[in-house]
Specification:
4 helices; signal; lipoprotein; Double Stranded RNA Binding Domain; flat; alpha/beta; LPS-assembly lipoprotein LptE; membrane; six-stranded mixed sheet
Length: 200
């Protein structure tokens, strides 16, 4: 197990040193050429990676853009996947996920979705440090996978689609406002009028 962990770590460091990138993390043709970017934590590793990937894919990040990409926090968890004969954990499954939205002004989210990635790794009870390093490397790889999937989803969205969704959201919001106003007028109309108080 120790030999396997060392091999995995060595290979990962070697690939990183050679400038290796996961398939799909390069540039791709994006229909959206301008976006505002907001995040629960823009300075988190995930927020920085998404911002960098937008730049690499020639998407201009501007506060004046008509649509905003909002990024939720990166959610991580770990659960036991299998046990050894002594009921000590032998494998763990890591999960990384985040929610994202495409918004326009104060309207409800035009698009709302979630991206999730899972990986399983062997935990070496005799070399906890090596296992922890392997888990950290997997977390970084999973984060890159999350960003790649986000870029692929954004690639499929066009400004025309967002404009259509925006128009639908505006009509829905206006209809809700009119319905509330009508209900208020009806309540005022049917509410019994109090008789003026006479003082003798």
């Amino acid at each position: 197990m120790l030999k396997r962990s060392i091999t995995v770590l060595s290979l990962a460091f070697l690939l990183t040193a050679c400038g290796f990138h996961l398939r799909g993390t390069g540039t791709m043709q994006m229909a959206l050429t301008e976006l505002n970017f907001a995040a629960r934590d823009a300075l988190s590793p995930l927020g920085k990676d998404v911002k960098s990937s937008l730049d690499n894919n020639k998407v201009q990040v501007s506060s004046s853009a008509p649509f905003t990409l909002y990024l939720g926090p990166e959610e991580t968890s770990r659960r036991t996947a299998s046990f050894t004969a002594g009921t000590r954990s032998a494998e763990y499954t890591l999960t990384s996920a985040f929610d994202y939205e495409l918004r326009s002004g104060n309207l409800p989210a035009l698009i709302k979705d979630r991206i999730e990635v899972q990986r399983t790794y062997a935990h070496n009870q005799d070399n906890i440090t090596s296992s922890s390093q392997e888990a950290d490397l997997l977390r970084e790889e999973m984060r890159r996978e999350l960003v790649m999937q986000l870029m692929m989803r954004l690639q499929a969205i066009t400004p025309a689609q967002l404009e259509t969704l925006k128009a639908q959201a505006e009509r829905k919001a206006q209809a809700e406002i009119q319905a509330r106003e009508a209900a208020l007028r009806e309540m005022q109309r049917t509410q019994p009028q109090q008789s003026p108080i006479r003082i003798h």
